[in-house]
Amino acid sequence: MDKIYQYKIEGYIGKNIEFFQRIYNYSLLKIEKYKTELYKINKAKNLTSIPPVEFEKRVIAPAFSMFKVIFYFVKEENLSEIVDIGSGGGLLGIPVSIFLSVSKELGFLEKNPMTVLVERRKMKAAALMLFKAFLRENFKVYEMGVEDYFAGVKRGKRLCIARALRIENKMAHSMKGKIGALLTFTSLDDKVLKLFNFSDVCRLTIDSVEIWMHVV
Fold first, then answer.
1. Digit-coded pLDDT (tens) for 33-55
2. What are the structural domains of the chain?
3. Which of 41, 57, 71, 162 minimizes the number of CB atoms within 10 Å of its CB?
4. Which among 181, 118, 123 is positioned nearest to 150, based on CA atoms?
5. How far, in Å, are 5, 119, 156, 179 from residue 172 at the CA level?
């Protein structure tokens, strides 16, 4: 664990509290639209078991904490594509896409990096397409497994994010050489860590949310 890297990111976020708050405030209208549409179709499509009253605490707050780390990577490390693996109902990828779009609109980012939502289940992928059309957001949806997605892309430094997906050996093999960093809310299995051969793994605490950062 590289404490210098950890302190650098946490320090960067701590010094930019005001503009992160502006991004959050300007994002609220779109976030509310997403929430409304999500729960409108949730009963039919089973997108989340989280009740509406806990949406901000259990979905938006963790997503915004992870967004702050993503912002650092986009701004300072020049990673231009965000891949939400096992996106489900878009509970991580869609808020992140909204926060990035607003960052560009407010002039905090020169360009809005593409957010890619990868979801193998047909019904959930269809819901993601509905959200994309409704919100007019800058993200792409791929209805396929994570392994299939990475089998079709070139080597590169993508920033991957995962809300609850368990990353196993086969999946890790498919991602190897094609990502620059991986952000998760839980630590990875030791065997999977060895497969990736990350140069740095550290636990960040952003707004009381624990985020595991894995850098290739």
1. 999 999 999 988 899 999 999 99
2. 3-215 (3.40.50.150)
3. 57
4. 118
5. 24, 16, 15, 10
